[in-house]
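Side project, low priority. Logging it here so it doesn't get lost.
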Amino acid sequence: QVQLVESGGGLVQAGGSLRLSCAASGRTVDNYFLGWFRQTPGKGREFVAVIRWSGGATFYVDSVKGRFTISRDNAKNTVYLQMNSLKPEDTAVYYCAAGRGWFANYDYWGQGTQVTVSS
């Protein structure tokens, strides 16, 4: 089992920045992909970014490229999502997840953290 706990959400004005954190505990995540997803009311869960824990390769959805950066700290077993130049359309509940593939097979999910971007 992998436990994931997100933090760092909040309210920010458009153009501002936030950094989300996701602390992993339980079994090792060395062989996992750690992803960030987001969800708004009435919409499905949307993939945002993913990092392969081993090696650090990353991938982003087009709408956040150049604005968001996913990274990890091996010593802290934590993955981060640095979000810059935030837009109102980035408003959502952000979830961290651990899985065996780039975009699917996510077995473990955090509780989510709210990000609200005001215009």
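Brief comment: The two ends are 40 Å apart (CA to CA).
Revisit when time allows.
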